[in-house]
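Example (one chain per record):
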Amino acid sequence: LLLSEIGSVSATDEDSDITDLTFSSETPNNLFYVEPLSGRIYLTAPLDYEDSQQFQFSMVVSDAGSFNGSNILTDEAIITVNVVNANDNAPQLSAGGLYGAVVSENTAINTDILTITCNDHDSPPYGNPVISSTSFEDLPFKLTHVSNEEAKVTVSETPLTSAEYLANVTCSDEGGLSTVGQVFLFVPGPNSPNFIKPLYEWT
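Predicted structure:
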């Protein structure tokens, strides 16, 4: 499978017609394909700047040799492919972006409930994710940042008067890509269940 042409090489030979020349190469990890007659170089798989920023390999051009195929002469050139950094990875929230916790209704203010982290596989300037949320503005919780990539959900008011709370969190990178997660907080009631009668008996 050829993805795209990235360049081509050319050669001359005073003894031969250029149509008698062939190009060959052993490319790294078979990521490139060299068309033998034209010298065109194609990608066979996507390149990732975070895995390798540069590839280098040798290209050999051969003439047709003598009439019986002997005495083939060759020349060699070095091919360098530089990979350009791109914002091709969206930031990823920990826990698959789904967070949940059970919180007592009388939990003290400033108690940390859970931690949210985010990472981005891209290199700078794209790989600097920031966690944010506007959902906590109307809730008795707040988002406390440890760093751009880590935040804690913290109790900001008490007592907690609802049985459950839901908030969205967003992790965005500097290249415009983002991932949205959800936080579910459950507040159990203070009363334990009670049997209507303390004793049941059948005969």
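Caption: Residues 6 and 42 are 6 Å apart (CA to CA).
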